[in-house]
Amino acid sequence: MERLEREVIERAVANVLPGAKVRGWVALGPDPGGGVAQKGAGYGRPIRIEVEDAAGAARTLVLRTATSDAFGHDRRADRVAELLLAHDTFPLVPDHVRALDVGLLAPDGPHSLRGTGEPYLVTDFAEGRLYAEDLRRIAREAVAARLDLERCAALALWLARLHRDPLADPVAWRRAIRDLLGHGEGIFGIVDAYAGDVAGAPAERLAELERRCLSWRWRLRERDDRLRRTHGDFHPFNIVFPEGETRFTVLDASRGSCGDPADDVSALSVNYVFFGLQAPAAWPRGFGPLWRAFWATYLGAAGRSVLEGAPPFLAWRALVLGCPSFYPGLAGAPRDALLGFAERALHEAEFDPGSAERLFR
Q1: Which end of the chain is more exposed for a tag (fewer CB within 10 A), N or C?
Q2: Do 175 and 286 lie in a common domain?
Q3: What total of structural domains would you count in the chain?
Q4: What is the mean pLDDT of the chain?
């Protein structure tokens, strides 16, 4: 739905806050940042809603609908599943925005999931700035400040705590590793979004990356001892920091919020390389120190086992970052370097964080 009428928004809000008054709303997105790593497509359409509740207190909510696209969301059932899963798993992840309601939006208003219409999700609003804005500033200024290093350490320690306790669910583990490749948001789905003429990513290169990742699926398939609580999409556009603070709120936990810790660790850390390749002068005093600090902090808190599973997850995230659907402004040279970084990792028995340095020599 391109537009949501006031009556529909008011009825959706009333399901969460009976007696509340809607004071206004505005669409969130597209990415207003510009410059380095301009974000393209996403998987949803969020709307920020300003509300006065029945007691007269101001509240801010977010109503999100899912997007019909080529990443495994082309069926209405896919979109229902995506937002229902979000509603069910957001409470499992600490410091996450709260999911308040889930249902269907139809022309005559919101309904239960028995009806027709598109699914929607209502959450709290997280005040602050996306972590991606920190990385854009570092790209411009070519230096990481003390707060940047403190936030980097806070992110690594948060992940170490999230990943601490094993989960005993072999079925969930096999699904997580299967979805790494076969899901519409996984490697196969992302590769399908590349056109045949993308600079740095010819079809034969993408096919070989797929084959390498498939061999890693068979290495990891029986390793259900690695299963942990995860965020599932832990990247700089899903992390919100209040001004001047190291505490943060996370958004959009995904894919069941359980899997290999290497997923979350790769999803965030590869962005230091991604931003660095687009602003190489910022590597020595900016993204390089952040990359090293993140890995040192996480490994010191959680141990080195994450390195055993990192290569295919690193490749997946590199493919996402290199995909023109998500980052249409990325040039061919950084895409080529990013995919080469993933290819070299896939050839090793475990990931070596020090291998990133060779990209900037």
Answers
A1: C
A2: yes
A3: 2
A4: 91
